[in-house]
Amino acid sequence: MTRLRWFEDTITRRLVTTVALAAATTVGLLQLFFLFGGHWAQPNIEQTGLLQEVAAITRVITAAPAAVRPKIAQAASTEGFQFKWFAADSRTAEMLKTAHYNPYEVQMGHDIIASLIGGTTRSMDAFSVDNPVAQAPDISVDPKKYPDASFMALQLDDGSWLVCAALVRYWGFFWRERLLLEFATIAAWVIAVSLIASRQLSRPIENLAKDVRLAGMNPSSAPIPATGPRELQLVAQTINAMRDQIQKFIAARTTMLAAISHDLRTPLTRLRLRGEFIDDMEQQARLFRDVDEMQAMVDGALSFFRDDAVCEEMTTCDLPGILRTIVNDFADQNIILEYSGPVRATSQGRPFALKRVFTNLVENAVKYATVPSLELRCMPTQSVITIRDHGPGIPDDQIGRIFEPYFRGDKSRNRETGGIGLGLTSALSIVQTHGGEIKASNHPEGGLEIQVILPKTPSDFPDRIVAIF
Asked: Which residue of 25, 69, 131, 326 has the lowest C-beta tally within 10 Å?
């Protein structure tokens, strides 16, 4: 059982596998680096022993008589490394003395060998095979045959010159370049491995978060897929179970409240019938007003619960088309609405539900304030619909409560205007199931301004599950 569980897709297994693959890849890259790295993979010149050899030959030649110096230089030469000594009055010595050298190469050569040679030289110059002095008659190195040849010219105390020529380069970068290269390589590899490892661990979590957002947007959607590592599968299964329990609770609550509201119609009808037998017309009128108000509350509650129970499918809809339809509907009632915004803009949503939201907001403005104006602004990640009237607005201490169930402002607490305080609550519920939000505020120039903010794509919906009412 333990062996089988090890082969399951888990976060631990993904992490261990990623680290193991990174280590194996690192070993493989190191082997390839040493095999094909060229100068990069070769040891530093200070680690090859070449400088110590040059320093030793230089001290021997300096101590030897001038007559035997050429033989010593010839004896110390090998196939890949040559020593040549030139007298102070020779033509080659004059060329070495007057030649032009690269200051960087000279400084680098001085830094790496001066401490080994000591004070046995007047000057030292480093140059490469492309320097004209490398083609002097007594030096004459073929640049095509030895393109990486390097030279060190040391002027001894008596004015003579010792030229050390490394025809084949078998050392790597100097320690500064090597340190910079190693740091850059390690940094690039660490970043690459970290990105791969984090992606392997974060992708399933991102997928789960996306599925949860979609499930919160559409409670009747399919269960969240239980994919990815075993731990995330357990999370998805737990969320699905919790989601099923919430749906059952909401369905039972909705059914119960709808049944209660429906059953209230019968006693209300009986009350109205009995009221017909009341002789006092004033008391009868009061009773009928109370019955009508209760009937309106029951009808509003039934409508609210009916909207809660019916789930319209999400689709791509045309927001300007919905708003223009509302403008035309009110124009048939001789109510002229002003619309400003694009002619066409698509959004994900439930078109009939959104139409109910905007119609409700416009009707509230017409009833309690003035004919409002509609404005649509489309942004990269969201669409903002603004409904603004020019009425008295809402007191600041009440503006945060207008979306609460059965809440009505002081100016709307009368039976003639109708409404029981569920319209804005229903609008808020619909907008939240779209992953959006509603904001209400008093405009500085007067009137109430309500903004409905809808995300443009499902991936932009906020990570939340909305509990209606």
From this structure: 25
pLDDT digits (tens, 9 = 90+) for 232-281: 888 888 888 888 887 788 777 777 777 777 777 788 888 888 888 888 88
Give the residue among 94, 98, 116, 102 at the shortest CA–CA distance from 151: 102
pLDDT tens-digit map of 346-367: 888 888 888 988 998 998 889 8
The pLDDT assigned to 134 comes to 82
Q: Output the pTM of the full model.
A: 0.49
The arrangement of strands across the sheet holding 150-156 comes to 81-86, 161-166, 150-156, 121-128
What domains lie within the chain, and their CATH numbers? Answer: 45-166 (no CATH), 312-469 (3.30.565.10)
Angle at 342 between CA 336 and CA 348, to 5 degrees: 105
